[in-house]
Amino acid sequence: GQQLNQSPQSMFIQEGEDVSMNCTSSSIFNTWLWYKQDPGEGPVLLIALYKAGELTSNGRLTAQFGITRKDSFLNISASIPSDVGIYFCAGQFGTGANNLFFGTGTRLTVIP
Amino acid sequence: GAGVSQSPRYKVAKRGQDVALRCDPISGHVSLFWYQQALGQGPEFLTYFQNEAQLDKSGLPSDRFFAERPEGSVSTLKIQRTQKEDSAVYLCASSLGGGQGETQYFGPGTRLLVL
């Protein structure tokens, strides 16, 4: 299957700090997405990116679709305790089933 | 309902037993996906339905896995003769049309433990 590598694997930060995580792939994707998964729940979509170079914000979240279409990053500004969870990047080819290929995840812990 | 629901939420099976996992997608959603999420990993695609048609089953790990959506709404994922390596969270997602970039809404998952 497709390999999407996320880094870092885990982060421990103080409340109020900014967070940055990224995702790289060996494949070119037409869409990049970022999801958050809380314990015992399914992933929830945070941001979707559709064009190479696109920079999109959603509240305190900002994500970019890399120029090469093989990478993406997610920034969270002024972290709060409810940001705790696992963040997954996902790529989509845009053909066939349009299924998602997920990254390995970044586990975020926010210390109040 | 308001979102995707899955049942049971937890399932413990003895090795060799058959299990059936149910997904109720959001009403009116044409596309339905099943994913498998192993502990500490991201979800991996299993199979895809558009209405009642199973258009892609390339992710099913073996012929012990079978999925159906006979009326284009509720879907069932069946695993026959379960093995320990089948232990995972099984996630169902639905989207309105299935086009590129359309939001896939995930259910809470069924946690399967095979002893």
Structure description:
The complex is a heterodimer of chains A (112) and B (115). In chain A, 0% of the residues lie in helices and 54% in strands. Chain A is mostly beta strands. In chain A, the strands form two sheets. In chain A, strands 2, 4, 5, 9, 10 and 11 form a six-stranded mixed β-sheet that branches. The mean pLDDT of chain A is 94. Chain B has strands at 5-7, 10-13, 19-24, 31-37, 44-50, 53-56, 65-68, 75-79, 88-95, 105-106, 110-114. In chain B, strand 4 and strand 5 form a beta hairpin. The relative contact order of chain B is 0.33. Chain B has no helices and eleven strands. The mean pLDDT of chain B is 95. Chain B has 115 residues and is mostly beta strands.
Mean pLDDT of chain A equals: 94
Number of strands of chain A: 11
Mean pLDDT of chain B: 95
Question: How does the helix and strand content of chain B classify structurally?
Answer: mainly beta
Overall morphology of chain B: globular
Provide a count of the helices of chain A: 0
Beta content of chain A: over 45%
Compute the gyration radius of chain B: what is it? Answer: 13 Å
Tell me what portion of residues of chain B adopts beta-strand conformation.
Answer: over 45%
Largest sheet: number of strands, sense, barrel closure of chain A: 6 strands, mixed
Run of helices and strands of chain B: EEEEEEEEEEE
- Largest Cβ-defined interface: A-B, 28 and 29 residues
Please tally the helical runs of chain B, counting DSSP H or I stretches of 4 or more residues. Answer: 0
Describe the global form of chain A: globular
* Cα Rg of chain A: 13 Å
Give the helix proportion of chain A (percent range). Answer: under 10%
Helix content of chain B: under 10%
Oligomer: heterodimer
Features:
heterodimer, A: about 110 residues, mainly beta, B: about 120 residues, 7-stranded mixed sheet, 11 strands
